[in-house]
Design brief:
This protein is an alpha/beta fold. The chain has a single domain, classed as 2,3-Dihydroxybiphenyl 1,2-Dioxygenase, domain 1 (Roll), CATH 3.10.180.10. The protein is built from three helices and eight strands. Strands 1-4-3-2 form a four-stranded mixed sheet. Strand 3 and strand 4 form a beta hairpin. It starts with 8 loop residues before the first strand and ends with a strand. The model has no long low-confidence stretch (mean pLDDT about 95).
Length: about 120
């Protein structure tokens, strides 16, 4: 029996247009496909309208308005221009922390996307 092939990570978002603009315009990701409640970006990341995905997955959507990001997932990116990325991101996002050198020697910063998901940008090792 063959193993399944991993295609992408799909994150729930409250507002697909807002999330798409953030990942495309702020983080510079390329939109590869856009179909209704779904947007596939380069590098294996996809966005899906949360309410629609809740219905598809669970048969119903949550009635509350809690943010989808719940401190349990980190979307990790790398950039050779970490200072420029920090400057760009800090004008539109809530920073968790500025650039810090981690115990393993890599410089990173972390912030929240519009849905509260943790995003980390680090320098290539």
């Amino acid at each position: 029996m063959k193993s399944p092939v991993f295609i992408n990570t799909l994150i729930f978002v409250a507002d697909l247009d807002r999330a798409t603009r953030f990942y495309r315009d702020v983080l510079g990701q390329t939109v590869l496909e856009s179909a209704g409640d779904f947007v596939r970006l380069e590098n294996g990341l996809a966005l899906h309208t949360g309410r629609a995905l809740e219905e598809t997955t669970f048969g119903e959507s949550e009635p509350d308005s809690r943010p989808y990001g719940r401190r349990n997932l980190v979307l990790y990116f790398e950039s050779d221009e970490i200072e420029a990325m920090l400057e760009r991101v800090s004008t539109v996002s809530e920073l968790i922390h500025p650039i810090e050198t981690q115990a393993w020697g890599q410089r990173v910063f972390r912030f929240h996307d519009p849905d509260g998901h943790i995003v980390e940008i680090g320098e290539p090792m």
